[in-house]
Amino acid sequence: MQRVAASEPELQYRDNINRGSIRALGYVGWAFGLLVACGLVVLVRWHNELQQLASTHRDVTFYVVLALLLTIPARFTALVASYSLELLLVGWERSSLKMLCNPAASVKLDILAIVITLLLPFRHLGYLLSFGLLYLVDLYTLRHLGTTLTPFLPVWILQVAAFVLFQSFLQYWMHRLEHAIPALWALHKFHHSADRMSILTSARQTQFTRGVEQGLVLLPAGLLTTPTAAIPAVGSPLFAFAAVYFVYQTFIVINGYLCHSNLATGYGWIGRWLIISPRMHRLHHATSPAYHDKNFGFDLVIWDRLFGTYVALEPGGDVRAIPVGLDDNPFNHQSTIVGALREYFITTYVVFWRALKSGLGRATANPDR
Questions:
Q1: Would you say 161 and 290 are in contact if contact means Cβ atoms under 8 Å apart?
Q2: Sign of CA dihedral 149, 154, 155, 156
Q3: Helix (H, G, I), strand (E, B) or coil at 163
Q4: Per-domain residue ranges for the chain?
Q5: pTM higher than 0.70 for the full model?
Q6: Which whole-number Å values give the CA distances from 135 to 53, 138, 188, 218, in the listed order?
Q7: CB 351 within 8 A of CB 185
Q8: pLDDT digits over 273-296, tens only?
Q9: Bridge partners of 275?
Q10: Minimal CA–CA distance to 320: which of 260, 271, 264?
Q11: pLDDT tens readout for residues 78-121
């Protein structure tokens, strides 16, 4: 029996149906991926709580599987969630995941830094690389000394507000000092030397820099430790504030990675007045003099607004077209693994030593940017 060839309109109709089916399947896959990414985000915040829950129900299969999942460190889970979210929102071509497939010299340094940070085999090696600063921070943090001001704030909400604002305030000024004092800038410039923004750029720092930053922030932050007052009971009018706080803490962890990603979003009015956005922080990494020494905040926009360091993208501008990095860059010159190791373990300390020799107290506007 001879088959009748389909007419042109019928072929067009079938082609539209196939395209519609593929598009619908793509939407389903995107939604499922977003659901998984959001689940990972939640897991980052509730990692310790779920771990305790799983350990008390070892006889239940679900909790056994959950326990295996929780063997993955929370920071690694945060990385996976951030990579997933960025991939879903910007696509493969602009994603940090694609950059890992054929990494440039800058990305290789990012990879090395995150490996040292997340997979450091011995804590004592971190003590050595930081010249003992991380050891001193661990040994003499104020929580061990028992000094805290939280008893003067008996209400849980006041403790939370004071803790969040004070820690954010310290981080802002620590970051600002890193750009103002030559010796501190010599340490921090390794982070700014990334000429490609990638999720891993958020961890682009040496253990020595980490020790200095923790000393500048964590020691005074110990005056207001994690809230000690009772959390508002479920169903009480104040419990909504507790929910907002937990959501905020979860988002800040992920946002630290997203602000170094290839997302160009400004979060609308939230990014202008409340939370640091990827667009705002990318401007901070720009080589353009118009953005030097601006947008120092790590989490809240309020400090840049109050102290006059806030800057927004020019109307009609494309933040993705703005070059990032340093004009005079001592890093990213080695494309081999050995070269990356040399820059991380040797060049960073050489740059710092040269800054020390040139003087400690002289202010700077980052002339080498």
A1: no
A2: positive
A3: helix
A4: 1-102, 103-358
A5: yes
A6: 32, 5, 20, 13
A7: no
A8: 999 999 999 999 999 888 888 999
A9: 300
A10: 264
A11: 788 888 888 888 888 888 989 988 899 999 999 998 888 776 65
